[in-house]
Design goal:
This protein has about 575 residues and is an all-alpha fold. About 70% of the residues lie in helices and about 0% in strands. A two-stranded antiparallel sheet has the order 1-2. It holds the Pfam family Otopetrin.
């Protein structure tokens, strides 16, 4: 009988495994076709225009919209059924984050619609249809993720696998399209800046995709065209967050989960004042540095060199602080004796893989800069600051990744440390009656009444008497017992106080690193990219090879900072 049951189980799981493999291959081919089409448009391939790329993306979004509508309708008809949920997936703060990015993405779509209206005489109709479709897609997808990100699908599993993986790679292609469009804009600005730094030997050819006609209202066109590129970073983060949430949903299809109580971990500002203050100082100074950098870079050679020097010195200081904070947190973990949670968790596994995978982007850029500094024949003064900066980027990500991954795998404490009232004692007619057992007795799983003992308070100054007037031996015995209880409680409270202090330090470190990662996300997301502007790497590696490396690695580096901030927010809630 057991063999029969086992073979039945294996036979049932085999088709689902095949469906998982087939759906993943479908998604990869979908993505590669779109990636090749995007690349062909970027290099101005013969016969490939932007309208072809947008038509492909519109088709993918429409298919996803049909699938999401079908899923939502089916869910409404089965809303009375009890469904399994993955409590680790789709956290509320993650949903709030993606909603914020989605709102800014809708503003971006409205700018694109306005831009199309102003240039409608010479733009393809697909450039007007795309932002409208994308806006509808964004609204429905955010609603879908709010309602169903935690679902563990157990019916129509094969069909759902294809629908979810289609959604994952559709968002990845939209992310790729946004990254490429924003990178081309940054590249044009970068080529112009290199002239001011004295790199005249680099051929400057602007890659212009601007419409070949005049705008109907010049002022509006300028607002739309400039505003679009400032909003792209939020659109890029929106699509990558959506794809990760959908990927977790795909991994959860057909999964069997253990039903256990999930402890809620709300975010609290209490106890993290120090970390927040230092983090806000870093955030404010970073915004100021970015503003000055964008104003000064490209104005003249001296101003550009001063802007680069200012950026490097500020980044070196911030990265050194982050390394120190991470090392302190890891030392605290080494002093604690807590086990790790190794249970199956697709969301946590994906978080760890994304941290290491996306960190490789900035590691690639850092090693390229280090190699360029070593091999270059001439070294302008400001380029020497790039060496400690690049080394610290590598070290900081090593330390931070270790801290975050260990934090999200540590088991959460089940005992509430905020309990301050340990006993409730009522004094009546010279006797005490314990209404609640001591904290230590609760912690050990037994009450005072189970052992027949009456707890004492303040080293026996007030002792419980069972019969109003006990003998001196009983009083002495109870006093000795109370002293033992008090000494034991004092030892427990001391340990508990040390634990609370460690937790407070860890929460402050997590809050500080959270704000620091948001701060370091801002410069590359909004055009402050010294990897483009210092010019040394272009001389050593060649202009086009280095630009290709930067354009491939920079999106991962930008995403790493936002994903790290999200993970550190979760660490702060969990600690």
């Amino acid at each position: 009988m057991e063999k029969a049951a086992g073979s039945s189980s294996v036979g049932g799981s085999c088709p689902q495994k095949n469906a998982e493999i087939l759906s993943s291959q479908y998604g990869i081919n979908l993505f590669l076709a779109g990636l090749l089409l995007t690349f062909a448009w970027a290099v101005h391939a013969v016969g490939i225009s932007k309208s072809h790329l947008l038509s492909y993306l519109i088709t993918l979004m429409l298919i996803q919209l049909l699938w999401m509508l079908w899923y939502l309708c089916r869910s409404c008809t089965q809303r009375r059924l009890i469904r399994d949920k993955d409590t680790h997936a789709g956290a509320r703060w993650l949903k709030c984050g993606i909603t914020l990015f989605a709102v800014i993405t809708l503003i971006l779509d409205s700018f694109k619609i306005g831009y199309y209206i102003d240039f409608s005489n010479c733009l393809s109709p697909t450039e007007g249809i795309f932002p409208v479709t994308h806006a509808v897609h964004t609204i429905l997808q955010v609603y879908f993720l709010w309602c169903h990100a935690k679902d563990i699908i157990q019916s129509f599993k094969t069909l759902e696998r294809f629908g979810v993986i289609h959604s994952v790679f559709t968002n990845l292609l939209l992310w790729t399209n946004g990254v490429l469009t924003e990178s081309k804009h940054q590249l044009n600005e970068h080529k112009e800046r290199l002239i001011t730094l004295g790199f005249g030997n680099i051929t400057i050819v602007l890659d212009d995709h601007a419409p070949q006609c005049n705008c109907t209202t010049t002022t509006l066109c300028s607002i739309f065209s400039q505003g679009i590129y400032y909003l792209y970073p939020f659109n890029i983060e929106y699509h990558i967050l959506a794809s990760t949430m959908l990927y977790v949903l795909w991994k959860n299809i057909g999964r069997k989960v253990e039903h256990h109580q999930q402890h809620k971990t709300p975010f609290k500002f209490h106890g993290i004042t120090v970390g927040m203050i230092f983090g806000l100082i870093v955030l404010t100074s970073t915004i100021a540095i970015v503003v000055v950098y964008l104003i000064q870079i490209g104005r003249s050679k001296i101003k550009s060199e001063l802007a680069l020097t200012m950026f490097y010195l500020h980044a070196i200081f911030v990265l050194a602080l982050m390394c120190t904070a991470g090392i302190v947190a890891l030392l605290i973990y080494r002093l604690e004796d807590r086990s790790l949670d190794n249970s199956k968790n697709p969301a946590r596994k994906l978080d760890a893989e994304l941290l290491v995978g996306t960190a490789a982007g900035s590691w690639l850029l850092s090693w390229g800069s280090i190699l360029a500094i070593i091999c270059a024949q001439a070294h302008p003064k400001y380029t020497w600051y790039n060496l400690p900066y690049s080394i610290l980027v590598i070290i900081e990500k090593y330390i931070q990744n270790l801290f975050i991954i260990e934090s999200i795998h540590r088991e959460q404490e089940k005992v509430n440390d905020d309990i301050k009232t340990l006993r409730i004692v009522t004094i009546s007619r010279g006797s005490t009656l314990s209404l609640t057992p001591s904290y230590k007795e609760i912690y050990n799983g037994r009450a005072a009444r189970d052992s027949g003992e009456v707890p004492c308070l303040f080293k026996g100054s007030i002792c419980g008497r069972e019969n109003g007037g006990g003998g001196s031996k009983e009083e002495t015995s109870q006093e000795n017992s109370s002293v033992m209880h008090s000494a034991s409680d004092f030892s427990f409270y001391s340990r508990n106080s040390v634990t609370n202090n460690k937790r407070r330090v860890l929460k402050n470190i997590a809050a500080f690193l959270f704000l620091c990662n948001l701060s370091l996300w801002i410069p590359p997301a909004f055009g402050c990219r010294p990897e483009y502007d210092n010019g040394l790497e272009e001389i050593v590696f060649g202009f086009e090879p280095w630009i290709i490396v930067v354009n491939l690695a920079m999106p991962f580096s930008i995403f790493y900072r936002m994903h790290s901030a999200a993970s550190l927010f979760e660490v702060n809630c969990k600690t």
